[in-house]
Amino acid sequence: MEENTVYSNLFCLCDPPLSDEGEAQGAERLRESFSGLLPLLDFSSTCYLISRQPPTEARCFEDLLHEVSSFLEQNRFLQANVRPVHPFSGNDADAWIETYLRFLRACKPFQQEGYREQIIARLRVFPVIFLKDAAAVMEAGPFLSFLQESFFLPSILIPSQAIDEVASLATGRDATPWVRIYATDESSFEPERAHEILHAQEVFDKLLEDDAEAFPEGNDSASLESLVLDHNGDVRSAKKKDLLLSTMELVGTSYRVNPQGATGWHQLCDRMATRFVRQGMHEPAITVWLSSARAYLSGVVPPSLLLYIALSHYEMGNLEKAMEALTEAREGDPHSADIRYYMGQCEFGWRDYIEAADRFQEALELGLPNPLRVEAHYYRGLSHYHLEEYDEALEALGEAAKGGMPGSPLPFYQGLCLLGKEDPQQALSYLQEALSRGPSSEDHFHVLFYIAHAHKETEDFTNALAYCARAEEFQPDNYELWNLKGFCHFKLRNHDEAIACFEKAIEIDPKSGIDYANIGSNLRDKGDTEGAITMYRKALSLDPTLDFARDSLNRLLSS
Amino acid sequence: MKILLIEFNPFQPEHTPISLGYLAACAKASGFPTDLQNVGSNTRMSTAAFSRILEDLQPQLIGFSAYQRNIFLVNGWAQACKRLLPETKILIGGPQATFMPTRALRDLASIDLICRAEGEVALLGLAGRLKEGQPLIDVPGWSGRGPDDTLWDGPPLAPSQDLDEYPSPYLDGTLNPGKMDEAILLASRGCPYQCAFCYTPRAFGKRIRYHSLERVIEELEWIRRQGLQSFWFADPSFTFQADRIHQLFDALLRKGLDMHIWLETRVDLVDQELLTQMKRVGVHTVAYGLESAADHVRRRIGKPLEADQVVRAIRITQEAGLDVELFSQYGLPGESFEDAQGTLDFVRDNHVQVRGNTNAQQMQVYFGTRIQEEAEGFGIKPFEEPFPEYLSIGSRYETEWMKTSEIEEMGRRWKAASDDGGKHTVS
After folding, report:
1. Which residue from A296, A330, B94, B392 has the fewest beta carbons nearer than 10 Å?
2. 8 A C-beta contact, residue B206 and residue B62
3. Interface confidence: ipTM more than 0.85
C-alpha cells in the first residue's frame, strides 16, 4: 500500500481464519482498518465486502456499510458502491432479506439526497450472490427479485460449467432478476478467488470503456489500483502480474452471456492486446488474441484477427507461426493485400527472395494502401537486389522513392544496385544521398564503406581512402574495410601502408589467403622477391584457388 | 495570494477546462500564482490526495465551476476545503452560478461568493481586494455573504470588449496540449440569437465578441507545434461572420496545418463554398442546433428556422464530406410526444448517426433562461416537491403537452436508437 496512491477499489475479505481468536476482537480490528483506508479511495470507488458466512454471522457487512455511509456523510463529494459478495442458500432467505432491509435503511438518506439534488445516489449497494448451479439460481429467484425491487441490482457468481444453463433460464423472459453473471472456476464459494475474478472484471470493464487508467502503457499487469484488506487488518495492493491472463477465459465466458456479449469481448481483447503490442509484449498479446479467436464458436476466425496474431509472431521472430496464421487468414480473405504483404515479409525473413518478390508484387496488385505500399515497393526492390536482378530492383526502389519513402536505406540500395550494374559513377550520387539523409549509426559504416568502394571502382583511390578513414570510426575492426584500404594504398604505390592494412586484415581473419597474396604483391613491387615468394606460398597454402598468386609466384621463381 | 481553480465533472472523462484556463491565465498575468485542478470521471482523486494538494498549495481563494449536475458535489468539496483551510474564501462561477439567486448561499454554507460577471475581470477584482486586506463586500461582479451572515450583491461589472486582452491559457502554458486528446478553443464569445432554453444571450448581452484572427491562428499554430491535431471550437455560432471565417481558413490553408476540427454553428450560417473550405482546412464535423424537427416548437422556443433550411444544411454539409451532429432535445414547450418522436425520425431520415452530441436529452431548464423565468408561460410545469435554491428546474418538470412518463419514454427511445449507447451526458 502506498500513501500517495489513489485506489479505485477496496476488497475486504471479511471472514476470520477458522482457528482465529475472539471473533468480536477481530471484527473490530477489521472495521478500524477498513475505516482507515477510506481516505485513500478514489472519489468514486467500489468496496467489495466478501464473506462466506451465513446472514446471522454477516454482521461485518453492516458494520462496514455503516463506515462507508459515515465517511460519505462527512465528505459530500464522494460516491461509493458497496458490493456484498456472499453465497446464498434458500434456508437463509428470510435472514438475508432482513439483512438487506437494514442495508436499505442505511441507503435511504442517500436515495433521498439523490432525488433532491438531481444526482445519482452517492451510496449504492450492488450485491454479488454466489450460486452453485442452475437449481440454486432457481431457488434464489424470489430473493434476487426482492433485491432488484429494493434497487440492489444483484449480480450472480456461478461456476463456469453452469453458465449456459443459467443463461438459458433467461430465455423467453423480458428481464431476469439479476443484472449480470460472473463466472468462477470454483465449484464452491472461495473468497480469495472471488476477489481475483471480480478485480479482473473491474479492470476488463474499465478497459472496455476505454479507460486508459485501467491498463496504462508501460504496465504489464492489472493496474487498476486496488487494495485488499483481510480479517486480520492486513492490507496489500491487489496488483497481480498474471491476474488478467489467468482470469480472462472466465471473463470471456461471462461476457458472452451478459449485455457486453461476444462483440464486447472481442473489442476488449483487441484493446488489451493492442496495449500489450504497444509495449512490445507480443507473447501476452497472442494469448489474448487467441482467447478472442476461441470465442468465435463457429470456428470461423476473422482474417483480421489472424493477421494480428501473425504480426505478433513475426515481431517475436517466429516466422513459421506467423506464416501459419497468415496462410489461414488468406483462406478467409484471399483478396487482402495486407496479408500478402506480411507473407512477403516472412519470406523475405527466410531469404526466400524469389517468393518474397512475387508476394510483394501480389500485394501491390491487390491495391495495398500506403504506408505499406511504399514499403512493399522497397522490399520488392530489396528482394530483386538479393537475386542480383538489378534492373527490376531499381524499378521497384524507384517506385518507393516516388512514394516519398524517407531515410537513407532506399538510396543506399539504389546505389548498391548501380554498383552491381557496374555503374559506380551514378552509384556514388545515390550513396552520397544516403549519407546526406543521416543514416543510423548501424548503417553509417556501410554507407561510407560503399562510397569508398564506389570511388575505388572509379579508380579515385585517394577519395576512397578518405571515406575508408571515416568508416573506420564506426567499425575499426572490419575485415572488408582493411582489405579495401590495402588495395587502394597498393594502387597508389604506398606499399608500406598497403602491407600494414593487409596485416591488419589478416589479424582479423588469419585464414585469409588473399591478404597474404596482396602482401606478396606489395613486397614484389618493393623489390623484396624472397619475402614475396614466402607470402605467395603462404597464400596458396591457405587458398589454392588464388590463380594470380600462383602466376606471380611462378614468374618470380622462373626469373 | 494564491488561487486554486477546480473543474469537477465526475460525469465525463477529463476535458480541457478552457474557462478556468482563461481565468488562471488572467490571474497569473496579474501576479496571482494560480493552480488549476481538473477532475473528471477518469481522474483518480482521494480525500487524502485532495488534502495534500490543499496543504501544499495553501490557497487563499478556491474557485469551482458550477453546473446543475455538480453543484451539490461542489458544495461537498467546499466543505472539505473549509475544514482544512477555514480562512480560505470559496467561490463558484460558471453557468449555474451566474444567475443563481443569491439566497441560494443559505443552502451552500461553505461557499462564500458567487460570480455574476465575466470570470476574468471579476476574479482579478476580488483577488485584488483580498490581497489588499479590504473587506469582501459589495465587490463588483460578485454576490456573497457578509460578516453578519447577511447576503449582498455587488454592482455589475462589464467584461472586456477586446477578448485579446485576456491572455491565452495555451500560449502562457496554463493548459498543456501535450496532455490532451483535443484542445478546446474559443474564437469568440456570446450569441446574438434568443433561444429561450439557453442562458448565453442573457449572459453575454446578445452580442458576440471576438478574438483577433491573429490570436486564433497563433494559438492553433502553437498547439499544433506541440503535436496536438484535434481542435474543438466552443463558439456557439462559429460562422456568424462568414468573411472572417473565410479569412481564417485561408490563412490556415496557407500555413498547411494538418488539423482535425469540430465546430458548431447554425444551419442558416453555412453555404456550399464555406463547407467546402471547411473540409479542406480539416473540419471533420459540423454540429447544428436542431432542438426539434417541428417548426412550431422551434418558433415557440425562439429559434424560428424552417425545416427546409435544416434539411438543406444537413445535405450540403454531408455532400461536402463532413459529418453532421444535431443537438436536439425533448420535453420542449409546445412539443407533443409525436413531435418528439418526429425529431428522432428526422435525424435518422437525414442519415445523421445517433451518437455523441446527436444523442438527444431532455431539455434542462437552467437559471438565466427565459424558460426558467417564465416557466408557466412556456407551459412548463415544475414538480411540486421543494428543491434547493441552488438548483434550477433542470429536468424536474413535465409540460402541458408531455407527461413525465412520455418524457421518460422518449429518453428510452433515443437511447435505444443510439449508436454509442447514449453516453452523452448533460452538465
Report:
1. A296
2. no
3. yes
